[in-house]
Amino acid sequence: MGARLTIIAAVSADGFISRGTGVPWDLPRDRAHFRAATAGQWLLIGRRTYQEMLGWFQDHTPLVLTRDPSFTPPVGKAVSSIEDALAQAGSREVFVCGGSAAYTTALPHAQRLLITHVETALGAGVPFPAIDSPPWRLVAEQTHAADAENAHAMRFAEYQRAC
Ligand SMILES: NC(=O)c1ccc[n+]([C@@H]2O[C@H](COP(=O)([O-])OP(=O)(O)OC[C@H]3O[C@@H](n4cnc5c(N)ncnc54)[C@H](OP(=O)(O)O)[C@@H]3O)[C@@H](O)[C@H]2O)c1
């Protein structure tokens, strides 16, 4: 059996993951959700996001998507394509952690999406691809109101590929 790809992303109500660089919200609840889902896992990350996240990796194995054959990641391994990543991962589950280019490339190969729908509009920025139904079927969701630490309400949604 080949690798199972799970995409994990936080997406604004109008479909964006960022204003251009960095994370556009401060949501400790979503950070905890992301940490819990990805602890100890193999990750697939676009080279731009990888450079933003350097220093964060602990027990993770990051596969860094890049077209630059000379790029040597300080942590993890470089991969030149989604096929290369799947071959390296064998039968493991791999969590695709963005950014937009990595999500777009990985989406046709993914079996599962873990999406934090953040109840705020950014107006513009770096987009997440459309979650069409079919093929995606919502199988679980959990809603949290905004509170003193989390400025926006959010909904943790899990989608499975239905076809
Ligand atoms: N809200 C969220 O959940 C979330 C999560 C992650 C990231 N983000 C945000 O997303 C933004 C970055 O997204 P992005 O789309 O600009 O960059 P990205 O996907 O992180 O990285 C883009 C780079 O990946 C490589 N790449 C992309 N597609 C490839 C392919 N098909 N084959 C080989 N290499 C490929 C290229 O690297 P080379 O240039 O080295 O060739 C490209 O420049 C940041 O603002 C970040 O904060 C948000």
Count of individual domains:
1
> Class, according to the CATH hierarchy?
Alpha Beta
Low-pLDDT runs of 5+ residues are none
Distance between the termini: 18 Å
By CATH, the architecture is named: 3-Layer(aba) Sandwich
* Number of E-state strands: 10
- Order of adjacent strands in the largest pleated sheet: 5-4-3-6-1-7-10-9
The number of helical elements comes to 4
Major sheet: size, sense and barrel closure? 8 strands, mixed
Which molecules other than protein and nucleic acid are bound? NADP nicotinamide-adenine-dinucleotide phosphate
Helix content: 10-25%
Strand portion: 25-35%
Structural class: alpha/beta
CATH names the topology as Dihydrofolate Reductase, subunit A
Give me the CATH superfamily.
Dihydrofolate Reductase, subunit A
Given the C-alpha coordinates, what overall shape results? globular
Give the topology string: H per helix, E per strand.
EEHEHEEHEHEEEE
Average pLDDT score? 96
What Rg do the Cα atoms give? 15 Å
